[in-house]
């Protein structure tokens, strides 16, 4: 995906500004976002699923803390595209019932195309994962690749869910899709999170809406070179996997013998050959000779 700073700085500003205007009804929100333009430039996609923005610090303001509702989903724009979603996450918001079907919803740019692994290229991706708020509104669903939905966003969503359920604390959480021009498929999403009662959870990342090995026409959602829409593939259990996701308790580095919370930026930098997704307790890892990360203090 040919993403460069010159082309991508402004669309991200605009997307965030539109969402804030929809949320607050204040035109000064755009000016506030314009002042952050130098912080929101997104580098060209180079194989890494996500990049830190603004030093990995969310753009939450005192106004956000004081006036935002428990959860909010922006109205669709003139092209039927999602504009953003916000929630003050808590255990009370997390659903206890099984998610109902969302297969009748077709987000902007939706196509049913086979991925190289035989599954679907696209999934109906929740901006705010179902496991966090239980909301299936069309204003919370975008056309996301299986890689974005089930790999990249999943890692951050799991870390948030584990933090909320493990501490009982609140998390400010905002996800803003970024569309270039009149593209119907988002180039990616800006994910922001910050714990309220302490400083243990905080991130601000841009996740690329890509599928390794496949070239996507973001204007339409089609795949260049394919004979139109490829053979239809029935929705599988893997569709929108945040309905039943369960992630590791910690991520350990087999080389450095350090372990981290899954949301820790150091965990994302671990090479695949050294990464160990650990399911168990902190004490078990220490008994195995691993030391806690000094950045996230697991």
Number of domains: 2
Strand order of the largest sheet: 1-8-7-6-3-2
Distance between the termini: 36 Å
**Low-pLDDT runs:** 1-11, 24-39, 227-246
Which term fits the overall shape?
A: globular
Count of extended strands:
12
Largest sheet: 6 strands, antiparallel
Identify the CATH homologous superfamily of the largest domain. Extracellular Endonuclease, subunit A
Task: Describe, in plain words, how this protein is organized in 3D.
23% of the residues lie in helices and 19% in strands. With 298 residues, the chain is an alpha+beta fold. Residues 1-11, 24-39 and 227-246 have low confidence and may be disordered. The chain folds into 2 domains: 48-243, Extracellular Endonuclease, Chain A; 250-292, no CATH class. It has 7 helices and 12 strands. Strand 9 (250-253) and strand 10 (258-260) form a beta hairpin. A 6-stranded antiparallel sheet has the order 1-8-7-6-3-2, sandwiched between helices. A 4-stranded mixed sheet has the order 11-9-10-12. Strands 4-5 form a two-stranded antiparallel ribbon. The chain is globular.
Draw up the topology in text:
Blueprint: H1 5-24, H2 28-34, E1 50-52, H3 62-67, E2 71-73, E3 85-89, E4 122-126, H4 130-133, E5 141-145, H5 146-167, E6 171-178, E7 188-195, E8 202-208, E9 250-253, E10 258-260, H6 265-268, E11 275-278, H7 282-287, E12 291-292
Parallel strand pairs: 10-12
Antiparallel strand pairs: 1-8, 2-3, 3-6, 4-5, 6-7, 7-8, 9-10, 9-11
Helix pairs in contact: 1-2
